[in-house]
Amino acid sequence: MDAFALPTFELSLSSAGLRDAEGRIQDIRGTLEFARSAQYHAIQLNAADPLTRPRDLGRSARRDLAAHIRRHELRCSGIDLWIPKAHFSDETRVDRVVGALGDAVQFVADLAELTNGERILSCAIPWQSGGAVLAEVAARAAAVDVVVANHIYPWPETVVPEGPVRVGVDPAEIILASADPAQAVSEATSSGLLASARLCDLASSGRVAPGEGALDLLSYRVALSTGSRAGPLIVDVRGLSSNAGDAGQLGVARLLAEEFGHPRST
Known about the structure:
This protein has helices spanning 28-37, 59-71, 94-115, 131-143, 171-176, 181-190, 217-225, 248-260; strands at residues 11-14, 42-46, 75-81, 120-123, 147-150, 165-169, 194-199, 201-203, 206-208, 233-235.
């Protein structure tokens, strides 16, 4: 790479909230085909998707899913499970939340073994109000050597790099907290806490394509390139328009792969 080239990354496409040009939820097989054609290196599965929900997938189904991932020359970079923050303080929901997160932890371990992928669960558990849930999930993650990347900002000083719970960086969430995603990446990297980072953006209207909101793409890109993390950079197009006239989520995902991704080896 010459002195003026912008850094590129190994990329994974998050399937969470992904829709086709007609606005329909993208089938996982279609997502795998798209990710391969768009030159992604990995896929980030969504544990809330009915087709990839851990409780609905036995060992045989998990092996079949992993075979599809490998057939498309991808690996699993981890699992997303986005649960509304209010659920963590709702006593009627806590047991269900803990169960879903525990299932997702084991799903991460299984898919990592089957696809030679990363052992990372990406979620957003409130550090304080969700503390009891986080402790339970941390224990389950430690038992199977999985890292929980918690995408709630800011993170407390009690988080340590040796622990099963570390930091996930979601630029949209950090911008919402009136902070700088590049600075957050630098802080998480320097302290050894960064487990996962995403590529997304936020404007006053909501989530937008990276570069169309408040994210300083250049500084964020440089901050990512100077640090290290456990897996690929996750392209996250949740909340973007799926309308083909606006390029759509898939169009944005393809453009981001071209701009930010390492070329795939053939």
